[in-house]
What we know:
Elements: H1 10-16, H2 18-26, H3 28-35, H4 42-50, H5 53-76
Amino acid sequence: MGSEPPLPSIWGRAAGDPEFREALIDDPLRALASVGDTGVTAEQVRQLDEMDVEERREIVTEVIRRVTLGHVRDRWGDRFWTPDEPGPMPGASDG
Length: 95
């Protein structure tokens, strides 16, 4: 018998699916009901449901920032830039 692959986490799904991310911010219960199996705990659902829209936007934005930085750091290490350095990321243009 093969093992079941793990369910995608709520945060992994939010990072990879902009439509789900916005739906999660607007109405977390409806967003979760629409995607089927997702690795989310009852506590996470309760916490998201008790937040107002701006609180959810802040937490989701922070999680996405951390996921993105984690992927960048995993791929490139700290050779070029760390989020703690002041100023723009090297290679970023001003417009």
